[in-house]
Amino acid sequence: MSLLEGRTAIVTGAGRGLGRAHALMLAKHGANVIVNDLGSSASGEGADQTPAQEVVSEIEKMGGKAAINTSDVSDWSAAKQMVEQAIDTFGDLHILVNNAGILRDRMMVNMSEDEWDVVTKVHMKGTFAPMHHAANFWRAQEKAGKKADRSVINTTSHSALFANIGQTNYAAAKAGIATMTIVAARELTRYGVRLNAIAPRAQTRMTEGLRELTEEQERRRAPEWIATLVAYLASEQSAPISGRVFEAWGFGYSVIESWQHGPQMEASMDPTEIDAGVKKIVAEARKNAGIDRGQELDP
Ligand SMILES: NC(=O)c1ccc[n+]([C@@H]2O[C@H](COP(=O)([O-])OP(=O)(O)OC[C@H]3O[C@@H](n4cnc5c(N)ncnc54)[C@H](O)[C@@H]3O)[C@@H](O)[C@H]2O)c1
């Protein structure tokens, strides 16, 4: 039996890049897939059904089952309809891959209100809304005695985990997604739902031209390396893994270890007395992990 036989998935932003690879990988391993994509530009403008339609056709050509959804994932009622569409079309829902995303990079001092609003909306609300509606369905299923392994895979970023300059909007949203994943994992265990997040690195239109790549680096940045981990996390085989954030690309998979308690001192009620103590614990603490450290992993 295939890894995902009999399971139904929603993949958001599945018309291009990583989402397309996730949808194809899930379908290849037996899942029915709702292929969601608004078809917007990399900065979130416009709409086009073609990318989602092409992925549906690709899946059908390889003998899989897929249906198109072209709604905006950050639209609350459209996200509810997307969950209902999966259930109406394929009879159930087991997997939700929140992947849709856009970029509007700008140094913080120059960032406009719109650049802040639209990026945080597409990523944070665009992850929360489908997750919320799917979780409501799963809670009802569990209460009706229908047990199943249910899996959500959210998409965070190194930008959030290692603080990329020029991306306060995107990094804040992606950090929100990472933490929201862990909180929801704690809340939803009782309904048979596992939630994990991935911080991918791949060559897509989002990262095109950012830096020159050798042939080997380009090969290791194919989205399929990441889709493999997504398909695994979507499968029952990965139970009971939940509440984890994974780095993923062609150079390997790793588990991110989250915020930790660091050096400590006694509290005071007098701000003139704590200078030496605060400087001491800051000096003793490990530095924040930086994006440069992440890049050293790129051989
Ligand atoms: N490529 C990387 O290296 C990288 C690194 C870190 C995180 N990510 C994240 O991975 C995800 C996929 O990125 P990608 O590189 O494949 O980009 P991409 O631009 O190739 O694909 C994103 C897709 O999302 C769709 N989309 C955008 N807004 C939408 C909305 N509101 N509703 C529905 N669909 C929408 C777009 O139409 C597009 O097809 C994003 O969340 C991105 O932030 C990518």
From TrEMBL:
Superkingdom of the source species: Bacteria
GO molecular function: oxidoreductase activity
Transmembrane segments: none
Domain Ketoreductase: 7-201
Keyword set, alphabetical order: Oxidoreductase
Family: Belongs to the short-chain dehydrogenases/reductases (SDR) family.
Name of the featured protein: Short-chain dehydrogenase/reductase
